């Protein structure tokens, strides 16, 4: 009894502290058993590099300073290997007065991104003071009184970018009501169902090729205040059992609270104790129960912050941020996540103790115009390496069991054109650091190398696995920092 009482107290305290952190501006914002074989549902799945994106807020101004800073941000994104930018297209900025639209700033962003080969994923949100009775003039996070008003805005945006942008997300974290669906605490599943129904239908009428995403929900449940992705989504389906016809893909935000490794199970009673793969599995089961198992999954935000003194959940080291980014990305790619978006590009001020300011891949720069570049964190370089090594490949198979690896380690193989093979390997249990593994290499491959997470590479010479055999292999040593064995 004492243990149960203690766990209840832990859960209540952690929920209260997390709500406090979120209200101060923090981000509230899974599958087969690890080691079991995983394969694509479709042989036509997109290649890895087209599936990697970042959520950021580059300047939208048209003045020279904003234009220059926007260009720098987009250059960083491209260099780090991101091909998709998830960005807010805020209703009140585009339609400040009913029927009066201004796309000039967003057109400039689109043009600058296109020059660099970056696709935009607009988040169509949030409210608009003229569309919500009782909304303060400068508050824009209340849903409209009439979803038809928002649907007309969606239709106009989708129509304006027809032939240029085909993917859109309807709202952001609608289950975090006190931030994004005011004045509720945990959002309104019925209200969001009505909004998504009208917005999705309007978007498809404006562009039949449009791919509309169920707005990314904050995953962990903070019961009874905030429903997590599972409960909120079930509520939307109860309100509108046929809602699947209004959207094409399902988005969610599987942050860890606390910020553990993606493979680690936390204490029961905390907001999100299960490993990433279990979270993803639960989401798929919800869609399956409601007849939408075929919907692609997008992760439109995820990340680990580095604010070591943040309360209530401290961040991770910069090296762990890099490791978790890569390992989480590899697992998501292995489990058919169609789009994977990291949050975010830049750290903000107070990044040592404020979690919202420490998710970035680049340290805070108090003066971006002084010519002194910001420091790129290890996670920046780790993502750049991942995108380069896996460019042009598809996930092929789980190799953990096939290679005879123990629990606490993983091996995932990706295949590319011309028979190119890349095997990503790591340990997620410190006890397994130093594990050595023999990786088979096709006899006709003439180039083999090992690439570290940092991007440094070493040429390898395959050895015959057995004297006189035509089978070849190389040896790798595992650690918590993933490595790639590439051969072609």
Keywords:
488 residues; globular; 2 domains; disordered N terminus; alpha/beta; Immunoglobulin-like; 11 helices; 17 strands; TIM Barrel; 6-stranded antiparallel sheet
Question: What would you note in describing this structure?
Answer:
With 488 residues, the protein is an alpha/beta fold. The protein folds into two domains: 27-389, Glycosidases (TIM Barrel, Alpha-Beta Barrel), CATH 3.20.20.80; 399-487, Immunoglobulin-like (Sandwich), CATH 2.60.40. The protein has helices at residues 2-23, 64-79, 91-94, 104-115, 147-160, 177-180, 189-206, 229-239, 276-289, 318-334, 378-389, and strands at 52-55, 84-90, 119-125, 167-170, 211-218, 249-253, 297-299, 337-343, 394-398, 409-415, 421-427, 436-441, 448-452, 457-459, 463-464, 472-477, 483-487. The strands form three sheets. An eight-stranded parallel beta barrel has the order 1-2-3-4-5-6-7-8. Strands 9-10-11-17-13-14 form a six-stranded antiparallel beta sheet, covered by helices on one side. α7 packs across α8 and α10 packs parallel to α11 (378-389). The longest helix is centred in the N-terminal third of the chain and has 22 residues, at 2-23. 45% of the residues are buried.
